[in-house]
Structure formats: C-alpha cells, structure tokens
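User: Here's a chain of 100 residues. Predict its fold as tokens.
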Amino acid sequence: MVTPPAFDDLIHAPNRLQITAMLAPVEALDFATVRETLQISDSVLSKHVRVLVEAGYVRATKTPHGSRTRTWLTLTPEGRSALDGHLAELRRIAAMASTR
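Assistant: Prediction complete.
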C-alpha cells in the first residue's frame, strides 16, 4: 500500500527525521549508535525518542548487556507509514521548486 503524501510535524524536527530515517532500513539500532551518528547528547536523544515513542512511531526495548542495559530502537509500522508519507510530501514540495 502506498502512503499518501502528508506533512508530519512530529517527524519534521531535524533530529526526529534523522532518527526515523536511520531506523527505516534496519530491524533495530541501539541507542548509542543513534546518539553517536547524530552527534547529540543522551538527554537530547532521549527527549526525541520519548516523543516518537509516545506517538507510537518508535518502540524502545531494553535488554541486559553484561552489567548494563542496552536500549534498542525500532521503527513501528505506524512510524514507517508516517515517515513514508512525510517523505512523499517533501518530495512533492521539492518537485514544485524544480519545475521552473
């Protein structure tokens, strides 16, 4: 099923757009990998992940890793649909600029 173009204010924030885009092609990524790739602090990433989790776009799962806990992030089907629609809308907007 093709997701219709739809601007999503929740995903549009640059860090959240990057998080969802990073998660789209993989089954899951660990929190540290996302943090290091985006070069942001734990607290900044935590805030963005919390927003995405509360919206149902991302699932955060904690697993034991030695004496620590590792957090894995997964894009949900709802998150994938929202990202697909948002990207389609961005492509539609960009196409308007290139028609001149």
